[in-house]
Amino acid sequence: MNTLIHTDVAIIGAGSAGLYALREVRRAGRDFMLIDRGPLGTTCARVGCMPSKLALHAGSEWALRKTLPTLGVDGIDGLSIDLNTTWTQLRAQRDFFANSGASKARAAAGDKLIEGSARFLEPTLLEVRSANGTQRIRARAVVIATGSRPVVPGWLDDLRDRTVTTDELFELESLPSSIGILGLGAIGLEMGLALSRLGVRVVGVDLAHNVAGIVDPVIGEQTHHRFSKEMTLWLGTQAQVLRAETGVILRTEHRETEVERVLAALGRRPNIDGLNLASAGFPLNERGLPIFSQLTMQIGDLPVYIAGDANADAPLMHEAADEGAIAGYNAAREAPTAFWRKVSLGIAFSNPDVVTVGTRFDALPKEGVIIGTASGDKNGRARILGATDSVLRIYADATDGRLLGAAMIAHGGEHLAHLLAWAIQRGETAHALLEMPFYHPVIEEMLQTALQDLVTQLTPTNDYPLGLVPTSAHLSLKSTD
Ligand SMILES: Cc1cc2nc3c(=O)[nH]c(=O)nc-3n(C[C@H](O)[C@H](O)[C@H](O)COP(=O)(O)OP(=O)(O)OC[C@H]3O[C@@H](n4cnc5c(N)ncnc54)[C@H](O)[C@@H]3O)c2cc1C
Hints:
This protein is an alpha/beta fold and 481 residues long.
């Protein structure tokens, strides 16, 4: 059967970006077709954000026992963990999230959902292969939201039976007793720590000198120092990965170890290679990626929009959601609208979390920037929580103290990250933020300390106590609202 369906908007991919696009297309009252080759449930829920955070939570809970003797607890050596049960529980909780993602797609699309694989014949003509045969869809506009998949380089081909990706890790029936993590970006770091806290011996290797993509040298060094207490880190080096009798040998010039398996956490590739983009007439860059606008999501001047991991720009769930919404909004209208994009935010839930907010250290202007620092050993709450190795660095404009960005390794970093991102996006200055209340004793006082450090580097504009504003100034501010 080779039928031709006409519709307003065809959305390829029912992941996070695709479902946000669908929401906008439905809101605009347009006809649509949603195509997904499966499995439904979104990468975030099935094999991404959610199972990885469940693993980290389990790891942290189990590792907590090691701190108990300091409180006088005896007998922790008698505790044991059944990792098969841990992983089964993880899958059960993960299934809740994934099933709700799949149900959402089915409920929102109804009989407009085709479970099949799409490719382009022309920019607005798709061929979809499914169990029911081949269909063609002619759409006025198309949203590409096909996501990404883990990279498994050719040099791992001989070891594929001993290599897992994050698509497979959570499905393992039993966890290995040792694992090599190849690639220590946010995903590799998170999985390495989760497994090591659950008792797996972990060796992490990365060509980069820092983990989690951190470029701030101070935070990078602290991160290395902190996490090498929990797993072996081979940074700034490339390891040979060789087949051993039963496991895998990792070897560098000076080091060698054998592990049972390796996790390939070497990045993710956008799922666009099977879409036939070049032949269908899409403008592509030298890497074969569609040339698109980050403000409209439009590819060239075609009525086609690309959102989420598929465009390889910012492969994060909240970015996929915004991009999907922009793509869906524009696909449902005659002319695209450019949308202002939010301050960037990257969090590795490594506990202490590794965070980058706003302008990265390597993108700061060479001059005219001041840095405010706070460390956990001087924060009361961090001391109570055993988080003295937290470090926060905030970057600000040296002329007016306007916040530009921040990097940190911090207990509760996920929360500090949001406060800072919101402040940066609002154009706040160090002075203005210090006018906000800070309770005691809280981790947020690290923010207060770093802001105070910034203010001491700025030329004073008045002699009021730090963080306090006279009522006269406050009222006059209000009256100009
Ligand atoms: C281990 C891990 C941990 C992560 N942790 C976080 C985190 O903590 N925070 C965060 O923000 N992000 C995290 N991410 C990233 C986040 O999961 C992704 O950025 C997000 O899920 C991308 O959504 P998407 O809609 O672009 O893609 P997806 O959800 O993958 O959706 C793409 C869909 O397209 C379908 N598809 C592909 N090709 C075709 C085709 N030709 N025809 C039809 N259908 C097709 C697929 O079946 C899929 O359903 C993590 C990722 C991983 C792997």
